[in-house]
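EI: anyone free to look at a 173-residue chain?
SC: sure, send it
EI:
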Amino acid sequence: MSFTYIRDLQPFQFNKKLKVRICRMWRSKLIGSNDQFNGLQCILVDQMTDAIQASIKEINYDFVAPNIKAGCIYEITHFHTGRNKPSHKVVPHVAQLFFNVRTTFKELPTIHPHIPRHRFYLVDYTQLSTRIDKIDILTDVFGHITGIQPLEQKKWSPMRGLRINVKSALKIS
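SC: here you go
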C-alpha cells in the first residue's frame, strides 16, 4: 500500500497509510469538568507541509498514547477519517483522523524528504480583523507586545449566545 498525502484525505475513508510527523499533542477536558479528560488531540504534518487533526477517544487513550510522542515521524495505518468538526477546528482541513486500539504506529528514523516540525497558518496582522466573529477555524495571535496597561474587564462573544469575560492587560501588534 502506498502512502497517502494529507491533502488527498477526505472524510469517511479507510485503509490509508500516512507518513507524518506528530507536531503537537494535547488532552482536552470535558466542558464543565476540571478533572475529566475527553481523549487526546494531535496535529500531524506531512512532507508536503499540509496538516490535519487527529483524535483519540478517552476510552482508547491508555492504549494509543504510549505508542506516540510529539516530534516523531510515524507510518500510520488502520485509522479512519471523518468530518473535521467546525466547533473546534484547529487546521483548515475538511477531514479529521480518528485513531483507536487497532491503529498502528511505526516510528521512522529522520527521513528525506524533510517533514517539518510545525505547520502554521499565519494571517498578516492587517488581515486579522477579517477573522473576527468567524468560527470556522480557531485563531492564534502571533505578534509582539507593544504596551502594558492595567487589567480591565472585557466582554467577548466568539459564538452566538456565548459570553466569556476576559481580562485584558497586554496590547499585541
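EI: The chain has two domains: 6-108, 125-172.
SC: 👍
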